[in-house]
Amino acid sequence: MALRDGDAALPNLSISGAALAALLHRCAAATGDCDGLLFGRASHLPAPPASLSDYDDLAAAAPPAPALTISVSSHCSLSHPSSLSDPLGRFHPPSSSDPSSASAGAAVGFFSSRRRTALRPSMRELALAHSLSKTLITAHPLLFILVSPSASPNFSTHSYDYRAFLLLASRLVPASLTVVNVGPGFRDQYHAFSPQSPMPCLPSSPAPAGHAHTTLGESKAVDEMVDGFGIGRLQGILGSAAGQAAEMDDMYAGMLRKLEKLAREVEKSNIRVLEQVSKSVSQILQFLSTSMLLLLISKLILLQNCGCRIVNGSTEGLRICSSFFPGSRIVDFWSTQETYTHLD
């Protein structure tokens, strides 16, 4: 549909952040220029209520018309460039299916990607817009998004410039494109969210007797998180609205008791670990002292076998009897200065 410039105000154009990111990624990943179809929906927002006035000229004015909104949710593009039109700019479907089928009926426009070029529609894109508008027969102006990706010489910075156009009469007129879910201005959209499908109905009654094993497993899973809170009380929270606050308080208290019990167990385990570490350290020290004594004895044995005599003038020391060394003399080992005299 091609509107004249004075027919109505420009529609509100919007695209989701995920759809825009996917579109820019497709344009950047292409080996060259590419194009494709844009899918979404067009809807008329309810008109604002007419203002009441005592003046005749304002009362006789026509009521405001409903605003048209075009929202882009996805895109479709083939691997080879210029897949939507022939060299003359005439539209041909990407597949052998009818463009007026259900899948192509959601098309709201098309996009084109040209690297490092000005954001101005070409003659071929204008011809494609006219041909596509006649083929799709939409009840709203055709949307066209022109993308121009570019990169720095060392490919450290990638830029994506884009601009939206609407086919009005025989011209592609620039229009403002709003990115949904990006920026603080769209924070209110989350408060007005309405799901397309209702929430499933959750069973609020206890499980039958034939499913005792399932109830036991679920109870064990609940007991691991909440102390003293059965699966029946948890189903009661999901079922009725009465008494939910009290049940939630009890569940929170049970979770605190569970955390306190876990904290005590961790504290006891830490004490046991410290005791085990202390015991291990004492065993290591005892082993080291025994090893040092054995090392000294081995040195004495080595000196005795070499025919050496240890002589010292100190009065304090450790006397090792020759009975420890069969067939040898008494050896005096002193902790102060030592003098070794070889026997001839």
UniProtKB/TrEMBL annotation:
Residues 245-276 form a coiled coil. The keyword Coiled coil applies. One of its GO terms (molecular function) is polyubiquitin modification-dependent protein binding. PANTHER family: ABRAXAS FAMILY MEMBER, OS07G0540200 PROTEIN. Keywords: Coiled coil. This is Uncharacterized protein. GO terms for cellular component: nucleus.
